[in-house]
């Protein structure tokens, strides 16, 4: 039957075409047209699979008009942190003049920084903390500055003092976040530049480490123009790496550093050998997500959650919604009117210390909120904590550092990553248990398409490099080793 109908149908189509005035010769074009349509379909499917990248663009963030003539000064200038009697006297005077509001009875850190404990910190700062000595500590690694897009970019660049024969040195860019600084990496640097002599496993991977200050943070000049966001920072850091002569490099980041390095991987994937993160934040939105979170509580395997994921994300509302709300008030202020709150913290070192160090308490461990002194000194020394505060104080960079939130949250208030593009470079994720929110690997895969290592870290929180340098260094080494042997 088919054999009869088909030729008949074909015949009748041809006759219809003919009746429209076409000849049989023209009708032979039909298969050709079909071929063309098919070809277009294949092209469309292939272009859908093509890796989309963030456009690199260009920018200029200096003050006033962009100079029309003349190339930018591309020199790389050695830099040393300096201090003066005047700076220290001014600090001491302000510390002595501080006034405090007594904490509510039994409040610990629930209302924010306990001001009785703050007085102890300030007494240490005024009488024992030695900024001159800390400046020497900071200067033990080589610092540099170079001008990119009209602003001065500060970075440290540490090379291994000795490279065993035949070993390739991997360039690694490490990017900090808020309220941290390049100083967060001081303990991890030697573990990466000289892993074998520090007893790291698989110490055959050797790094040279570049830690820039995000523009507006510490010793990098702040943008003078509105709109300096993570994309601009990503582009500037690519330019920095290229200026240093690197064509391909590894990236590592947490906090804003995770966002900036992710943007870098989406911008120039061909330059990024691998991306290692200790923060992945992919907000869950929409009904589908809600259902999957609900299902996960009962049948986690159905949505790809491991037992450890379940332990870390449930009870969901408490751990993922309430904790985040309580810990993100600062984000709302900085994402809307940073300059107003910034007036106070930029003028008072005591206010600045409370504002910054409260985060080093709760983001290191949420339960530290219950402690009278926020358990600040359990994981860090006061010298370490105050050195980080001083980097903000002496550079007056707290306001520009806060503005970075506004510049990045205006278009997308959820802190979401650029999920439209996906990340296709090899990616390693270190999931620390006390991180603000846990992101299971199945969720991370929505953005990071090529996860090579995903590790449930045994302990540690948001400031991983500062708090658990050995654990983080080992995870970076394991990841890079895998990528190199792919
Ligand atoms: C604040 O911290 C001090 C310890 O530095 C402690 O003695 C005091 O009880 C704490 N106050 C509150 C309200 O938690
Ligand atoms: C204004 C704004 O929201 N800017 C950007 C912040 O960062 C993300 C990606 O990291 C960009 O997509 C936004 O455009």
TrEMBL record:
Gene Ontology annotations for the cellular component aspect, listed alphabetically: endoplasmic reticulum membrane
Catalysed reaction, written as an equation: 2-(5Z,8Z,11Z,14Z-eicosatetraenoyl)-glycerol + H2O = glycerol + (5Z,8Z,11Z,14Z)-eicosatetraenoate + H(+); cis-stilbene oxide + H2O = (1R,2R)-hydrobenzoin; 11,12-epoxy-(5Z,8Z,14Z)-eicosatrienoate + H2O = 11,12-dihydroxy-(5Z,8Z,14Z)-eicosatrienoate; 8,9-epoxy-(5Z,11Z,14Z)-eicosatrienoate + H2O = 8,9-dihydroxy-(5Z,11Z,14Z)-eicosatrienoate
Catalytic site: 255 (nucleophile), 405 (proton donor), 462 (proton acceptor)
Record EC number: 3.3.2.9
SUPFAM superfamilies named in the record: alpha/beta-Hydrolases
GO molecular function, one term: cis-stilbene-oxide hydrolase activity
Epoxide hydrolase N-terminal domain location: 76-185
Residue stretches spanning the membrane: 26-45
Gene Ontology biological process: arachidonate metabolic process; epoxide metabolic process; response to toxic substance
Subcellular location: Endoplasmic reticulum membrane; Microsome membrane
Gene3D superfamilies linked: alpha/beta hydrolase
Family: Belongs to the peptidase S33 family.
Protein name: Epoxide hydrolase 1
Lineage of producing organism: Eukaryota, Metazoa, Chordata, Craniata, Vertebrata
